[in-house]
Amino acid sequence: MEQFAFIIHPMEVRRDVATKYPVLKYFPESFVEWLMLHKSPVVSSHITGIESAADPQAEGWFIGCPLSPRQLLNLPVDMVYDRIAAAGKLAAEQGAKIVGLGALTAVAGDAGISVAKRLEGIINVTTGNSYTVYTAIEGLLRAAQLMETDVPNSHCAIVGATGSIGAVCAKMLANQVAKITLIGRNTTKLNQLRDELAGSKCTVEVTTDTSAGLRDADLVVAVSSAKDSIIFPQDLKSGAVVCDVARPRDVSVDVVKERDDVLVIEGGVVEVPGDVDFHFKFGFPPKTAYACMSETMILALEGTYEPYTLGRDLTVEQVQHIGELAKKHGFKLAGFRSFEKAITEEDISRVRDNAKRQKSEIRS
To answer: The pTM is what?
Structure first.
């Protein structure tokens, strides 16, 4: 039996913490955060029933790290690293041989490198970003197909293109679309990435103006490190498909409220092989998980107990390799989500029809 763990943390403090301590929903968030600073990591659940298509089986644990998104991003980094490492040590005590960093524990500081150093010789660490990229691209292209987007002739914008995830997404899409616009804050880095894409079939433009870069985009990959929303309803073309991988989200919730002709997804929902039971509710349908969680499971099933995705340097080869391992063990894209809600193919059909109607009205 292979063994792994995955570190989670409250995303909405009062809501998430109140599931275990209901009285805390009546207290200010700042007070709940203060209490969390005085609490140790906990074993949140035991994960059972994972069975690879290639025969290995695995069990795991969700380890709760008591830090809020604001604390993970704003507390002194050494304090954050120590808290995450404490959760990793608890994972090792359960028997896990590899631990995945969930949500903002994978973003804080140097994207897992310092945490991995603190856990060296105790347990191996991965952020899950490689499989996150793989499923984001897979999900974007599948959603585009359902939206009847002509992908080979489409314009794709990458928001946060100079980051590790954005750059890899650009490289993976460069031979699948007609045009890519690289959007970021650093012109020098944008130009360097444009030069790296020079041999691809698409034309490449760069801009530091997010709204201008998105204006004509059919496909959007949002992976910036912004602390607040940077994509708004007026920025997007009718019929656009947006895959928002960023945490915190790049896409404002107003897009979903005001633009029924635009499709926003959060990357793919992954079907986990076997009769898996997470014994924990994180808002997904049964037997499905986030891609970052799934990367940890895949590595465990493969017996690859070594750091896989750490830091901010990802390669296309790394992403493609984890995708191949996922197929080997029976992991596959199961559906879509948007702002923590499932999206059905019927929902996508409505968005597609609304976009067609909008375009027809504009032409007339």
So the answer is: 0.90
